[in-house]
Inverse folding.
């Protein structure tokens, strides 16, 4: 995928950014270097005051091996640097925010950056460049991709997302309007579930006594696995302070007697808070960047849906 990487880097440079390519960039296997080398490089980047954002091209399948090797205290003392990514990167960005209070972006990765942003949404570049305190408003475009992925190898210059299906947000727990606020935190279920009950995913002291707007999304696991994982995360206390739960749109398979939506309700219905599904924060394009640690307001009615985030 080096062609796509080159396109993404050129796009960033065209916007005036200096791009530093890391040492751990071997894409021939599921990891780019031994865990100690990757952890050292990530710590170095996150504590370098000249680096404003760290954006992996892709990957992070087994990034859980980095967590005990990262010096979160050192990272927390440094001038904040954005860490941006989605899917497997939840393994790192969510604990980083929970343990240090530093905001992170669950949105696009570097390979996605050349895509044109659909109307109503923002790119991660819009988010990290926004002035502190400026409200970031996003609305669902009403269209998404019905399936599949683009061929970056054959078409590294591709910039237009294929959005060939219609659909907007869906309230799962009942009817009526939703208007809630809270601090955002969340990520990919398949990666976060492995951290449930550990210090890396504790929300007990995060953001003081504020309520939390928790978002989750299923990548590829079937509905029964997602149901079990969400039950485990709830029992471990991850959702204890949730004012609402946002659930990403997914193409992950249903079970014979259990859909993905039913899996969420089975596990999280006992919370007694609004549950809004089919949000653009998952493995179905397009993607709506969410900032872990941002204060946010979610409005969902029959006429409109909107999320407004404030970086304070």
């Amino acid at each position: 995928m080096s062609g796509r990487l080159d396109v993404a880097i050129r796009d960033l440079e065209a916007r005036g950014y200096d791009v530093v390519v890391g040492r751990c960039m071997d894409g021939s296997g599921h990891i780019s270097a031994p865990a100690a080398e990757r952890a050292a490089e990530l710590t170095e980047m996150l504590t370098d005051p000249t680096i404003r954002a760290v954006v992996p091209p892709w990957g992070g399948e087994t990034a859980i091996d980095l967590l005990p090797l990262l010096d979160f205290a050192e990272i927390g003392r440094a001038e904040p640097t954005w860490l941006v990514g989605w899917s497997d990167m939840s393994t790192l960005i969510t604990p980083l925010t929970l343990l240090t209070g530093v905001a992170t972006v669950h949105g696009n990765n570097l390979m996605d950056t050349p895509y044109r942003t659909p109307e109503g949404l923002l790119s991660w570049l819009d988010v990290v460049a926004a002035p502190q305190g400026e409200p970031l408003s996003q609305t669902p475009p009403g269209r998404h991709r019905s399936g599949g992925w683009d061929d970056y190898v054959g078409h590294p210059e591709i910039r237009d997302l294929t959005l060939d299906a219609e659909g907007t947000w869906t309230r799962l727990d009942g009817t009526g309007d939703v208007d809630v606020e809270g601090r955002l935190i969340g990520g990919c279920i398949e990666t976060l579930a492995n951290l449930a009950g550990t210090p890396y995913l504790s929300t007990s002291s995060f953001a003081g006594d504020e309520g939390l707007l928790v978002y989750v999304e299923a990548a590829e696991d079937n509905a029964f696995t997602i149901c079990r994982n969400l039950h485990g995360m709830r029992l471990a206390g991850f959702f204890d302070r949730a004012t609402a739960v946002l659930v990403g749109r997914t193409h992950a398979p249903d079970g014979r007697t259990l859909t993905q939506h039913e899996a969420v309700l089975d596990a999280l219905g006992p919370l007694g808070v609004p549950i809004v599904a089919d949000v653009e924060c998952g493995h179905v394009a397009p993607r709506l960047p969410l900032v872990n640690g941002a204060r946010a307001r979610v409005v969902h009615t029959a006429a409109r849906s909107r999320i407004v985030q404030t970086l304070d």
